[in-house]
Design a protein that fits this description.
The complex is a heterodimer.
Chain A: E1 3-7, H1 12-17, E2 23-33, H2 36-48, E3 60-62, E4 67-71, E5 74-79, H3 92-99, E6 103-106, H4 112-121, E7 124-127, H5 133-139, E8 140-147, E9 157-172, H6 179-189, H7 191-196
Parallel strand pairs in A: 1-2, 2-3, 3-6, 6-7
Antiparallel strand pairs in A: 2-9, 4-5, 7-9, 8-9
Helix pairs in contact in A: 2-3, 3-4
Chain B: H1 21-38, H2 42-54, H3 58-74, E1 88-94, H4 100-117, E2 143-149, E3 154-158, H5 163-166, E4 170-174, H6 179-194, E5 202-208, H7 212-222, H8 234-249, E6 263-270, E7 278-285, E8 292-296, E9 302-304
Parallel strand pairs in B: 1-2, 5-6
Antiparallel strand pairs in B: 1-3, 3-8, 4-7, 5-7, 8-9
Classes of the chains: A alpha/beta, B alpha+beta.
Chain lengths: 202, 312
């Protein structure tokens, strides 16, 4: 396990150095939020040859729908823990291929399509402790733009400057490793013992 | 900016001047929602601290320590989780409580105020035409579970429910022949399927019998029981223990990244069932098990139960 402090934009080389079990803290201006609808919109724009309001290459894409509020005309993030990344499995592989984000942040892990795309593109998936919205907000220093507001506060594209945002635990890397797959295997191996506690015969 | 601007209603005021019942219920709702979003009930906090203390897995310890730090940061008035939930209230209203007509509007307006001022994330989306209402209210939301009880007071429990854990709740319509073993297997299999997706360590509520709607309703009500509460019937308490032990044996751990504590509690209750049916509702709660309860007397004195005024 190695601890990294990275600044955006993150290069493919840097992303490929990261391995499952590493801890990352990110700083910089290329931190964007995107959930289901922002992924969908970004992909639609790509198809139409349109440019999204930000350049996703080298960025950190955070699966989150923040609580934000406006104070003296300026938006700030109040609470912003990760949402369940599994929902983005529908779009993430295409998104990675087209936009080359380097660090995904979310919770719960993602599937085989995303794992393959991480390997191909040179990117990682990191897990942030679910529910820790107040803690995460500390690392999300400044909101520079609130794009795609028509999607509503949770689904919009928030453009953020981060400062030591983390700890992000690398749980899927660009070498085909996934801690989530390992966990599935570990839990499956314990199934007989688990069932024995409730009188289920295997 | 997150200071508690709410002026608490004096528990022991001299009640010579009657307060406006709508305003009292409204202001109580606001405080309940604010406290629910920012401060966990004591029993949940203690259970998380104990889990951190006894955890042997390094990753799990890091996850639990983040959760504990997060709770400290949130406590002055910041929503602990950005998913401040869909708005649900459980109401127990005494048949002699004099202001029944004021309750629904007061809960709705209190929700709007809390959304703007805590702030809470707007989480009410129209499933037919799309669009977020922006203030956590809309068609049938806040959802109010009404129960009429004997008495002259009003009990309000604010129960904002997060989406991640809600997405793994299930209803199983089992064949009665599978018996209680089948019931336990359904709950345990579900946990091994969603792994950490519901922000483990979780609290699980199980409702057995009644019908599909009744089973899940009972299941969800169990999430409001204190963690140290055992079902009064030993047969049911035993089911609670067995399921809890089984799920903690999986090693799923906090956030599904491995560890000793996967559930903080399993609570079971039941209703009589139809001879042909064995409905089982499984309600899942995340570690951010938010709820806040208050009782309003007929002369409008407010007692906060989970988040007392003293010390908060």
């Amino acid at each position: 396990m190695t601890e990294y402090h990275l600044t955006t934009p993150i290069t493919e080389e840097d992303a490929r150095k990261l391995k499952v079990g590493d801890i990352v803290y990110v700083s910089g201006e290329h931190v964007y939020t995107a959930r289901d609808e922002a992924h969908e919109r970004a992909l639609k724009m790509f198809e139409k040859g349109e440019k999204p309001p930000v350049d996703f290459e080298g960025s950190v894409v955070y699966h989150v729908g923040p609580v934000a509020w406006q104070k003296n005309g300026k938006w700030m993030i109040v609470s912003a823990g990760p949402t369940t990344s599994g929902r983005m499995e529908l779009f993430e592989d295409e998104f990675l291929r087209k936009y080359k984000a380097r660090i995904l942040v979310g919770k719960g892990g993602m599937g085989q399509k995303t794992l393959a795309a991480l390997k191909e593109v040179g990117a990682v998936y990191t897990s942030y402790t679910g529910g820790c919205g107040a803690l995460a907000a500390k690392g999300l220093k400044e909101v520079r733009a609130y794009e795609w507001q028509d999607l509503g506060m949770p689904e919009a594209l928030w453009v953020i400057t981060a400062e030591e945002f983390g700890p992000l635990l690398v749980t899927m890397d660009s070498h085909g490793n996934s801690m989530h797959d390992e966990m599935d295997a570990k839990v499956a191996a314990r199934k007989a013992e688990v069932y024995s506690k409730i009188g289920v015969k295997v | 900016m997150f200071g508690d601007k709410f002026v608490p209603i004096n528990n022991c005021s001299e009640a010579d001047q009657m307060e406006d019942p709508y305003q009292v219920i409204h202001d109580t709702t606001f405080r309940l929602l604010k406290k629910a979003a920012t401060v966990l009930p004591k029993d949940v906090e203690e259970a998380l601290k104990a889990a951190h203390e006894r955890e042997t897995n390094e990753t799990a310890k890091t996850q639990l320590s983040a959760i504990l730090t997060n709770m400290e940061i949130a406590e002055p008035g910041i929503p602990m989780c950005q998913d401040t939930g869909i708005m649900i209230f459980y109401i127990k209203v005494g048949d002699k409580f004099p202001f029944i007509g004021e309750i629904k509007n007061a809960l709705t307006e209190g929700t709007r105020k809390a959304t703007a001022e805590v702030p809470l994330r707007p989480n009410a989306v129209n499933p037919i035409v799309g669009g977020n209402s922006g203030d956590n209210t809309g068609v049938k939301i806040p959802w109010i579970n009404w129960e009429i009880v004997e008495g002259d007071s009003l009990e309000i429990t604010a129960f904002p429910k997060g989406g991640g854990s809600e997405n793994v709740c299930i209803v199983g319509m089992l064949k009665p022949g599978v018996g209680l073993t089948g019931v336990k297997k359904l709950v345990v299999d579900n946990a091994m399927k969603y792994m950490g997706a519901a922000c483990a360590p979780n609290i699980i509520g199980v409702g057995i019998g009644g019908g599909s709607d009744i089973a899940i309703k009972i299941a969800k009500q169990q999430l409001m029981r204190p963690l140290n509460d055992k079902h009064p019937e030993p047969e049911v308490a035993k089911i609670e223990e067995e399921i809890m032990e089984a799920i903690n044996t999986t090693g799923i751990g906090p956030m599904g990244l491995g560890g000793d504590t996967t559930v903080l509690g399993v609570k079971v209750d039941y209703a009589m069932r139809h001879p042909a049916s064995l409905p089982v509702g499984v309600a899942v709660q995340c570690w951010a098990a938010r709820q806040s309860k208050a009782i309003i007397s007929k002369d409008l004195k407010v007692t906060y139960v989970t988040h007392p005024l003293e010390g908060n």
